[in-house]
Design goal:
Layout: H1 8-17, E1 33-36, E2 51-54, H2 62-67, H3 72-84, H4 90-106
Antiparallel strand pairs: 1-2
Bound molecules: zinc ion.
Length: 110
Amino acid sequence: MTLLAVPTGIRKAVLERDNHCCRICGRHVETPALHHIRFKSHGGPDTEENLITVGWTPGHDCHLAIAHGPRARTFAPLLVACTVDPSVTALQLYRWQRETELAVDDLSLP
Ligand SMILES: [Zn+2]
């Protein structure tokens, strides 16, 4: 066990909560990684509230492309929402958020 490893019990609880699916895109992950919503390097704890299951392999790398990608700050609160509501994914929330913003822009209020 390395210093960065999430304790086994917490890891198991997060994977079960997320049904072994990436909480960003919803796809099932054979070899899951756990993402710290508040980065471990920023003092983020190893708690169920701060961890989500993500894909991190070639062909399915939501971890690097999204959770640590150029929109990481936009996605962080969406990832928190995904720990609370297992029926939504971060990508769904992101799309709904963008559609809502576009709809507000379309109103052209004076
Ligand atoms: Zn994914």
